[in-house]
Amino acid sequence: MSLTFLWVFLVVMAIGVPIVFALAFGPLIGFIVDDRTSFLPVIAQRLFVGINVYPLLAIPLFILAGEIMNVGGITERLVRFSQTLVGHMRGGLGHVTIVSATIFSGISGSAVADASALGKILIPSMTRQGYSRGYAAAVTAAATVLGPIIPPSIIMVIYAYIMQINVAALFAAGCIPGLIIGIGLMFANKIVSQRRNYPVAERRAAFGEVAQSFRGAFWALIAPFLILGGILGGVFTPTEAAAAAVLYATVISLLVTRELPLREMPNLLYRTGVTSAALLLVVGTAMVFSWVASLSGFTPKLGRFLFSISDNPYVLLLLINILLFIAGMFLDAGPAILILGPILGPTLIQLGVDPLHFAIVMCVNLSLGLATPPMGLLLFVVSAMSRTSVLEITREMVPFYLVHVAVIFLVTYLPQTALWLPRVLGF
Question: Rounded CA gap, 306 and 322, in Å?
Answer without folding.
Answer: 13
